[in-house]
Amino acid sequence: MAQILAPSIQWQIKMTKNSSSARPITAKMWSSLLLNQKRKGAAKGSAKFRVFALQSESSTVNRLEDLLKLDTTPYTDKIIAEYIWIGGSGIDLRSKSRTISKPVEHPSELPKWNYDGSSTGQAPGEDSEVILYPQAIFKDPFRGGNNILVICDSYTPAGEPIPTNKRYRAAQIFSDPKVVQEVPWYGIEQEYTLLQTNVKWPLGWPIGAYPGPQGPYYCGVGADKSFGRDISDAHYKACLYSGINISGTNGEVMPGQWEYQVGPSVGIEAGDHIWCSRYILERITEQAGVVLTLDPKPIEGDWNGAGCHTNYSTKSMREEGGFEVIKKAILNLSLRHKEHISAYGEGNERRLTGKHETANINTFSWGVANRGCSIRVGRDTEKQGKDRRPASNMDPYVVTSLLAETTILWEPTLEAEALAAQKLSLKV
């Protein structure tokens, strides 16, 4: 039932220009309008009156919604698989659909597919075919039923991973016996900002102006403090439906900014779950008419940036004496600080300024319960470290595998280790 407000003297009817699907108002609809006008007769002198008109059951909008909600399961074994991959920028997501003859339970049951890499910045026009390899499956919260979302990575027709395929290298690291033995756990905190569609200004902010200063917005409640909660909640439920290991969500420090957490996840699974959760968030904001940005510093000035803090631990860290293993890992991370920073997201230098709960991008630091450090060790257990440096637009395949490589596989020279231990006041 649609609620309509109209002036009492002049009826205002908005019709879409040049629309072939526009329908005239029927006698039944006019009767409904006039009936409700008479019922409101006691409110004479009012500039407006409220009327109710029943939507036509045969309207185009209703038919479209019915088809979108249609469950095909009773009528066919065929399902729709949405193949998802990462585009040429390394952060843009692409997808397309295909019909599969029956439900599947593992990506190995799915066929490889291809796409035009010249249209995504991943191949030249004269040799544009790129091959998609299905790698992970999630339930499709948009189509429902047995339909699925498929996370893929990209290869040349000869079977070589293309340069933007970061999953391939990550899978190699996570399949190393030393890494497998350490069972690396990840908990990733994905921050994001919602923008108004036409002006690209944060949701809830006055256009061309600023809201009140930060303070009341973090985990805030109320129409003047929380902007976009429905999107956050819709995303939360969609991820749970899909099988993504989402563990929580909250409003962030800057108004219009949100965070959700995924994990604990083991190995390559962490990257698969984050990428699929980002895809779902893109689709939800698309439907809501809101723009999603993972820019690490969407608003310059005295506003918090957006990160993707990565919680990390290994089997050795979680066992008795694990704090000593953590300190050795911190030492290794300090020696590869520049290499990690260069892989932690484009534009991160605008966020890692030493202000707004960040460490300076050029300085490595660590501490227990210190939110301004590069690496924060939790006070409650001192058995898990959080890398606070990754930007919100980081590639989770790169960050998770680099952490495992640096802390499990990579060994510094004894001289470098001694100098770093002295500098960081670590006794390893």
TrEMBL record:
Enzyme Commission number(s): 6.3.1.2
Major site of localization recorded for this protein: plastid
SUPFAM superfamilies: Glutamine synthetase, N-terminal domain, Glutamine synthetase/guanido kinase
Single biological process term from Gene Ontology: glutamine biosynthetic process
Protein family membership: Belongs to the glutamine synthetase family.
Subunit comment: Homooctamer.
Protein name as catalogued: Glutamine synthetase
Organism: Nelumbo nucifera (Sacred lotus)
